[in-house]
Amino acid sequence: MVQVGDAMGPSHGLLVWDTASGAVVAHDATVRGSDIQFSQDGQRLLLYHAGGVRKNLGTKDQIVIWSKEEGAKTLCEAEFPRAELSPDGQWIMLSQQKSPKVTLYSIQDQTTVALWPPDIDQDKVWEWEDRGIRRCGFAPDSRRVLTCSENGTGRIWGVDGKLLATFMSHGRSISWGDWHPDGTRVATVSEDGRGWIWANSGKPLAAFRMTGSGRWICNWNADGSRLLVHNWYGGRVSILDPEGQLICTLDDEDHIISGPRWHPDGVTVYGRSQGTIAR
Q1: pLDDT category of residue 278 using cuts at 50, 70 and 90
Q2: How far apart (Å, rounded) are the C-alpha atoms in residues 222 and 74?
Q3: I need a labelling partner for 273 at 20 to 30 A (CA). Which of 35, 78, 160, 164 fits?
């Protein structure tokens, strides 16, 4: 179990507990942040402060990698960052609000790779605020990246910065995208209620529709046999197969279901219903 103090106020820094004994096994008073991610092997932590109230406009946040053996290491700085650690723990992906640019940082080589859409002039970035990145994520192999933008364009990149595929069938902003566990396809959903399943080449494999508009979110289960689609604002939850066909809907007639998540068994879904847990 981990707790870390917020960068905006006083704190005791980073605390790591052993939940079996309840003992603190690591303490680093120098670390600050509001968001924490474990590497898959559990040996590293990615820490940063995403959003929140700023006392001083223009303040940049430190993106820190921490391990028990090496302590805290500041990798880079960014304003209002969103960060993700790759599955193999070797890359950090950084994106920022109102910017189409995504940066990959190699932990081992301490080098950066910029993913920049080819149709955007880097000298005129502020003219393209509607093309900011809404969602980005690493493929299971850690060698490819999916980016979903405000203008309805999705792209797949190599970690070397090479553009591998583009898909543009969404009419409005892509609110979410998720890699299939086998890395052969991705699912995307947009604010106009449209959803697509794509091959890595950018070829559309299936399309589906949701009722209503809003910030739609989609997530594959552990074995990729089912796709969960829901609205961030709550409501009916849809379960689809890999071809985009509806398997079932999860609905509570008396309450709004929000925040549904897959159980590791890949079959059970948990969600909140007016403050309770619905299974």
Answers
A1: very low
A2: 33
A3: 35
